[in-house]
Amino acid sequence: MDQLLRVMNFNVSSDGIGAGEHQSLERPFGLDSPERLFAWAGATASWPMRTDPGGSRGLDDYFTRDFARDIGAEIMGRNKFAPHRGPWQDHGWRGWWGDEPPFRTPVYVMTHHTRPSFTLADTTFHFVDADPATVLDRAREAAQGKDVRLGGGVTTIRQFLEADLVDTLHVAVSPVELGSGLRLWESPDELLDRFHLEVVPSPSGVMHHLFWRR
Questions:
Q1: Whole-structure pTM over 0.90, yes or no?
Q2: What are phi and psi of 125, to 5 degrees?
Q3: pLDDT digits (tens, 9 = 90+) for 171-212
Q4: DSSP per residue over 153-169, as a string?
Q5: Is residue 78 helix, strand or coil?
């Protein structure tokens, strides 16, 4: 069985935007009210950061629950790890997620400014300056036969799509229009030369776009 590279639960607006252009410590997504994009996941019973009982079941919950299934490593861009640009001023920043990041696997952070690896709980972050194919090879080796999740952001996913390395994508399209920002696509039809597509509507208003290789 091949180790797949999977984009999972990636959120965009109805006009294809997944993040704003001006990320900061106060605005990790570079957007005002970014929960407009991913509120569907936070409402589910399986949302990993849920602190109170309850939450919805059904289709949205299935995707939230499936996030970690058979995943052995993650790849992300530097902007998903930190708001900082350029050389690291210090190594005190250890990600947005506190002492127990939700990944629970090796994570490969793509950056032109490397720094030593470190471990928080059961997640180890590695910082790599390499092309997508090389990073994927390292992540697959670390995943020990399991699949690799491509976590984003938008620019990183586009790099891997352009290198034709992505096997499956699940993109959750929320019913909001943002107008400007970092765009995953003008239309999902752009990917149909390489992928099959099935679109599944959810009662939450989100349209789940499921792509798999032709």
A1: yes
A2: -95, 130
A3: 999 999 998 899 999 999 999 999 999 999 999 999 999 999
A4: -HHHHHHHHHTT---EE
A5: helix
Q: 47 — phi, psi (to 5°)?
A: -60, 120
Alpha-carbon torsion angle 51, 34, 147, 91, nearest 10: -80
Give the model's pLDDT for residue 1: 54
User: pLDDT (tens digit, 9 = 90+) per residue, 148-166?
Assistant: 999 989 999 999 999 999 9
Q: What pLDDT does 142 receive?
A: 97
CA 209 – CA 39 distance, rounded (Å): 17
What tokens appear for 74 in the block? 């993650």
Q: Which of 79, 60, 69, 86 lies closest to 173 in space, CA to CA?
A: 60
HSE toward the beta carbon, residue 82, CA cutoff 13 A: 21
β 123-128/106-110 pair status: parallel
Query: Number of helices and strands (H, E) in the chain?
Result: 5, 11
Q: What is the DSSP letter of 188?
A: G
